[in-house]
Amino acid sequence: MELDRKCPSCGGTMIFKPGWDSLVCNLCGHKELIQELVSKNPVVEMDFLSAQNTASHDWGMETKVVQCKMCGAQTIQNKLQLSGLCPFCGSNAIDQADPSQDIMAPNGIIPFKITEQRAYYIFKDWLKDRFLAPELLSENAQLNKFYGIYIPLYTFDVLTLNRYTGHYDENRRTLFKCGKFQYQVDDFPVVASKQLASDKLLLNVVRDYWTKEAKPYTPEVMAGFPCEHYSIGLHEAWNSTGPGIRMLLEEQARSQTKSSYLMGIEMATDYFDLKYKYLIVPIWLNSFVYDNKLYTIVINGQTGKIDGQWPKSFGTFAKKTALFFLGSFMG
Ligand SMILES: [Zn+2]
Ligand SMILES: [Zn+2]
User: Fold this and answer.
1) Is 118 exposed, middle or buried (0-12, 13-18, 19+ CB in 10 A)?
2) Which of the four pLDDT bands, split at 50, 70 and 90, describes residue 137?
């Protein structure tokens, strides 16, 4: 996303430079440190119950929402930006979406640490471990360029009070156990991107952020990078945390019965003081088409963790290879 930010020495365009915490001029290299990113100020935890009234809608710039006609992804851009390609599928069929949408602004950001060049090295390394990958990519698939984009991530803090019962086996006898405990859930992450949340592999990458390193939101970090529009609302996101938080709490209950494995846990939980942060976090995206299907590769723009979708069936390809080998024996 281009900010209307011009270089003071040459008038060139200033864009955010991953790993530098700075805006850099694309013509003369003039550098400006972004104060918010080097400050020690924490991201404010927002009160969930009053979110409707307190959530900011101010992005610090004039924004527009564009929608991809191929895959449906919506991205938020600076109003002055000319829409390019869809970062999710590479399509150039981009449309301006409903301009009346009122989009909640993030209150925190994790800036890009991984550069585009580093993303390529990580990707190349990853390819080495993929069966038939180089041949597959060179012969049959069209690999796109890496796109840097911010995606929306909520984190939740909540104090839980729990009472539980369960049973465990000891000396061939079943014993019952009950107990109670308090547990503070801290920065439980929910990805607000439906484009990415449907795939377990990708989800592991986009949940891998060190959220404690988030900084207060500032629009400068979006100079050169668009942001995906959240497709999962705050309430829907909180409602989806049930199974994940339950797993954390069962772990706590089990840790109270150290010698044996606690089973059949029943638990009643009260939640207090629910708080959230709405962060935008960086990813590098790449996609390729193979056999008319779109596959996506994601690199965490902060930690460098990579994963991706990969064709599961190499049917036609393996057959072709087999024929090739057969041919070379016969010939
Ligand atoms: Zn300049
Ligand atoms: Zn698309």
Assistant:
1) middle
2) low
Q: How far is the CA of 8 from the centre of ligand 1 (A)?
A: 7
Radius of gyration of the chain (CA): 24
What does the pLDDT look like over 201-258, one tens digit per residue?
A: 888 898 899 999 999 999 888 888 889 988 888 999 999 999 999 999 999 999 987 7
Residue 79 confidence class, pLDDT cut points 50, 70, 90: confident
Q: Of 144 and 197, which is predicted with more confidence?
A: 197
DSSP letters, 181-200, are EEEEEEEEEEE--HHHHT-H
Ligand 2: centre distance to CA 175 (Å): 56
Residue 306 lies in a domain: yes
Question: Torsion over CA of 199, 300, 35 and 16, rounded to 10 degrees?
Answer: -100
In the reported structure, the alpha carbon of residue 310 is separated from the centroid of ligand 2 by a whole-number distance in angstroms of 18
Give dist(CA 153, CA 214) in Å, integer. 11
Domain that holds residue 316: 14-330
**β-bridge partners, 153:** 191, 279
Residue 272, in any domain of the structure: yes
- Is 55 domain-assigned? yes
> Residues of the chain with pLDDT > 70: what percent?
86
Distance (Å, rounded) from C-alpha 135 to C-alpha 92? 27
**Ligand nearest to the CA of residue 10, numbered in listed order:** 1
Domain count across the chain: 1
Residue 135 counted as domain residue? yes
pTM, 2 dp:
0.82
